[in-house]
């Protein structure tokens, strides 16, 4: 069985090669290692070979990992990438570098309220349902601009970009990645500070090549690093 270190080295080399092929700098793309359902010892292994950013999807599991003795004192940056119920937001504010899955105004409002309450500032992404699948969360592309207009007014939070989970079909996925990029450009035209809108969180183990080609700035890769769940 291959080690976490060798898996990470391979993924990093693939990202470097793909960004070069796409005419982009490797530094333009950040790797978030999706560690949900994986034990702290594997996160520690990844951290030992330089991986800093990790993605979690379940609040209770994430909170347990934050307190795990194996991970104390490490320079980790946590991303919350799963669907986030409004009543769970209070548990993660102040503990994550970036919240990916805000998919409705009420969740953004609660994120703002909790950030104000704790005198913190929280960066987040809006999740967009580019595939139109009923089983997926996310704001409709048709309503994104109008919903974002309201969200921009909320205090103590900053919208930094967009996130999507693409269709399993690779051709459809590429179109959805392109649509997300176009939506971000449209969003910049209405934003109070368009320079903040820099992030496109899209692309996972099976489709990150096309995501890079279509402008991804954050890749969420789990299986290629940690193996199947």
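-> sequence recovered:
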């Amino acid at each position: 069985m291959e080690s976490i270190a060798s898996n990470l080295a391979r993924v990093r080399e693939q990202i470097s090669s793909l960004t070069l092929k796409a005419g982009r700098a490797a530094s333009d793309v950040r790797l978030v290692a999706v560690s949900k359902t994986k034990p702290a010892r594997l996160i520690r292994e990844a951290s030992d070979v330089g991986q800093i950013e990790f993605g979690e999807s379940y609040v209770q599991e994430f909170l347990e990992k934050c307190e795990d003795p194996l991970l104390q004192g490490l320079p980790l940056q946590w991303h919350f990438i799963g669907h986030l119920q409004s009543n769970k937001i209070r548990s993660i504010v102040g503990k994550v570098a970036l919240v990916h899955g805000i998919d409705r105004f009420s969740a953004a409002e609660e994120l703002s309220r909790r950030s104000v309450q704790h005198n913190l500032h929280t960066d987040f992404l809006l999740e967009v349902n580019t595939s139109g699948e009923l089983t997926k969360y996310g704001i409709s592309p048709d309503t994104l601009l109008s919903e974002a207009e309201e969200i921009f007014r909320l205090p103590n939070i900053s919208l930094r970009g967009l996130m999507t989970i693409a269709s399993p079909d690779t051709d459809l996925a590429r179109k959805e990645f392109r649509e997300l990029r176009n939506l971000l450009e449209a969003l910049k035209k209405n934003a109070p500070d368009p320079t903040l809108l820099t992030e496109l969180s899209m692309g996972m183990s099976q489709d990150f090549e096309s995501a890079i080609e279509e402008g991804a700035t954050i890749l969420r890769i789990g299986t290629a690093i940690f193996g199947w769940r």
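The mean pLDDT is 96.
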